[in-house]
Amino acid sequence: MHDRHRALGKSPRSGQSGRRKPLTAILWAMVIGGGGWLALGGSGNLISLGALAMTPATDSLSAAFSICGDSSRMNCVVDGDTLWFRGEKIRIADIDTPELSPPRCQAERMRGEAAKTRLMTLLNAGKFSLVAGRRDEDRFGRKLRVITRAGHSLGDTLIDEGLARRWDGARHGWCG
């Protein structure tokens, strides 16, 4: 009897497959099947946004950010909605800011520079968390994340200050 179960790939006691599914496959099934938002918590683990809302803020990420130049791309701000953090390029998923490369008009350039500087200031103001959405990356390979501090989106701060718009899936002009 035991040999028959082994031949079928089942354990003799439970009738279930003797192989264990890799943890990553189970986690991906939960992410894809659940369709929910995930957060990178203080210990580096992904947790659901619903669970995050029920727990105290665990902001644990920080760095000294600068404006990106031609040198190292470790912890720097590209523009109002794009940054490098720990060597990884991140697109802030919940906002759209004026373009800087290239701006379409002088007003867009000025507002884009202000958004870039303000984002750097916000990132340098204390610890934060990165929240992942339904898609891990955009078509340019940037990680899509919402940046939060104490459960509040830093993107919302930029929106409140007139330096960003809520991302609705399409680019809208900043000129006139």
Helices, strands, pairings?
Elements lengths: L1 H6 L15 H12 L3 E3 L5 E3 H6 L11 E2 L8 E4 L2 E4 L2 E5 L2 E2 L9 H19 L4 E9 L5 E7 L2 E2 H7 L4 E2 L10
Parallel strand pairs: 3-4, 6-9
Antiparallel strand pairs: 1-2, 1-8, 4-5, 5-6, 7-11, 8-9, 9-10
Please characterize this protein's 3D structure.
The protein folds into 2 domains: 35 residues, no CATH class; 130 residues, Beta Barrel (OB fold (Dihydrolipoamide Acetyltransferase, E2P)), CATH 2.40.50. Helix content is 28%, strand content 24%. It has 5 helices and 11 strands. The longest helix has 19 residues. A hairpin with a 2-residue loop joins strand 5 and strand 6. By secondary structure, the chain is of the alpha+beta class. Strands 1, 2, 3, 4, 5, 6, 8, 9 and 10 form a 9-stranded mixed β-sheet that branches. A two-stranded antiparallel sheet has the order 7-11. The N and C termini lie far apart (79 Å). The N terminus is likely disordered.
Rg, rounded, reads: 21 Å
Number of domains: 2
CATH top-level class of the largest domain: Mainly Beta
Number of helices: 5
Instruction: Report the major sheet.
Output: 9 strands, mixed
Strand content: 15-25%
Distance between the termini: 79 Å
Level of helix content?
Answer: 25-40%
CATH topology of the largest domain: OB fold (Dihydrolipoamide Acetyltransferase, E2P)
- Which regions contain 5 or more consecutive residues with pLDDT less than 50? 1-56
Annotated CATH architecture of the largest domain: Beta Barrel
Structural class computed from helices and strand pairing: alpha+beta
User: Which shape, going by the Cα principal axes?
Assistant: globular
Order of helices and strands: HHEEHEEEEEHEEEHE
Counted beta strands: 11
